Amino acid sequence: EDKVVQSPLSLVVHEGDTVTLNCSYEVTNFRSLLWYKQEKKAPTFLFMLTSSGIEKKSGRLSSILDKKELFSILNITATQTGDSAIYLCAVVTNAGKSTFGDGTTLTVKP
Amino acid sequence: GAGVSQSPRYKVAKRGQDVALRCDPISGHVSLFWYQQALGQGPEFLTYFQNEAQLDKSGLPSDRFFAERPEGSVSTLKIQRTQQEDSAVYLCASSSRDSGRAGGELFFGEGSRLTVL
Predict the structure, then answer these.
(1) Distance of CA A46 to CAs A3, A71, A76, A80, B72, Å?
(2) Is the Cβ–Cβ distance between B84 and B105 less than 8 Å?
(3) Mean pLDDT, to the nearest integer, of B79-85?
């Protein structure tokens, strides 16, 4: 059975801090790993990773995948209160099915 | 449409009632997924359509759950004889053919929050 485990489950930081969120997985027929941000409503896409060692970057957010050790990290630098959300990691198989972790709830205090 | 649209946004049902949840995906999106999200957990896969074909329904928790997409566009998730453990947010997501092949992003609707009393 495909499995995605995220850590920590929750995290509280202050504005300006840097955070690292972790995602490990066990899946057959891996195709890609995706990160989503979920505020009060629908998850919204952040990054898609398919190859090891290539960092994806968007502003203060960056992510990297290690296909040998089966994990990914999401880094957020200089956090802001608007970064408060649940961050979801999902792994997609060759059949197109996405399996999600339980997410990391990030709270950024002013 | 511009985004994935789900209705109703909120539904309160008495235990034993049947409910139907609707999803209108982004126009032209081939793939459609249903997920169940309980409080404090990530979305759990329920079922997946490619056009009108239901390719995977392995996540449906019981035979009380049924999904259809008869014309390859709008989909309905039906839950018969609802029970309290069915209370959750039901998320619908769609993806384009190219996105799906590339293992790419899902576009989510805002979900239907079901509360069973």
Answers:
(1) 20, 17, 12, 16, 28
(2) no
(3) 97
Helices (H) and strands (E) counted in chain A, each on its own, are 0, 11
Between CA A56 and CA A54 the distance in angstroms is 6
| Mean pLDDT of the region A6-16 | 97
Strand partners, B100: none
Q: Which two tokens stand for residue A82?
A: 């608007």
User: Which of these, A98, A77, A83, lies nearest to A27 by C-alpha position?
Assistant: A98
Q: pLDDT digits over A34-64, tens only?
A: 999 999 889 999 999 998 888 899 999 999 9
Tell me the nearest-neighbour CA distance from B41 into chain A, angstroms.
5
**A residues 57-96 lying closer than 8 A (beta carbon) to B:** 88, 90, 92, 94-96
| CA gap B108, B95 in Å, rounded | 9
Q: In the numeric block, which tokens belong to residue A97?
A: 């099915």
For an interface test with B, which of A38, A98, A105 has the most B Cβ atoms less than 10 Å from its Cβ?
Answer: A98
Report H helices in chain B. 97-101
